[in-house]
Amino acid sequence: MPRSASWHTPLCLAPPALRPWLTERGSLTARLMAHFPAFSVRVCTQASAGAHDDERRAIALARRKQQVEAREVLLMSGQTPLVFAHSVLQHRALRKGFRPIGRLGNASLGSFLFATPTIRRSPLAWRQIDARHPLWRKAAAHVADLPARLWARRSLFFAGHDRLLVTEVFLPPAFAA
């Protein structure tokens, strides 16, 4: 995945306690489960939607108005939201390499991605987001009293020629900056 300036903030600007979470190459779900025993996934939405401006190139959308499949979940510890996760892919990918995503329900996306040996992952990219970014606003629709800035990371997953972009926004209080 090309690391545009907007998604390659120097890691040294992130709070030291958050850096290992931002750079975790393995399953974020597995790591959350190890640290938060009451872990669960709460699906916010999974539907056809428009891609954000900074997502279109990453998933190789041919047309600006082309719809994508978007899945948004909260990764929870009991009733406490830990991470707002936003995933997008082209609809054709649901008929090919990423078919199981359409049937995940409350299962974690990571449980599928990291259990499938043919899926490859791009390098991680990260940045701070604020109320100007659509993902901050989407997280705020599900989580009250967000701080002005949140840290997020994203990466592409490849199944053959199909692409899935996963963005994870780290929420307070567990990941207070």
UniProtKB/TrEMBL annotation:
Its EC number is 4.1.3.40. The keyword Lyase applies. The keyword Nucleotide-binding does not apply. Gene3D superfamilies: Chorismate lyase-like. SUPFAM superfamilies: Chorismate lyase-like (SSF64288). Keywords: Cytoplasm, Lyase, Pyruvate, Ubiquinone biosynthesis. Belongs to the UbiC family. HAMAP family: UbiC. Removes the pyruvyl group from chorismate, with concomitant aromatization of the ring, to provide 4-hydroxybenzoate (4HB) for the ubiquinone pathway. PANTHER family: CHORISMATE PYRUVATE-LYASE. This is Probable chorismate pyruvate-lyase. It comes from Jeongeupia chitinilytica. The lineage of its organism: Bacteria, Pseudomonadati, Pseudomonadota, Betaproteobacteria, Neisseriales. The gene is ubiC.
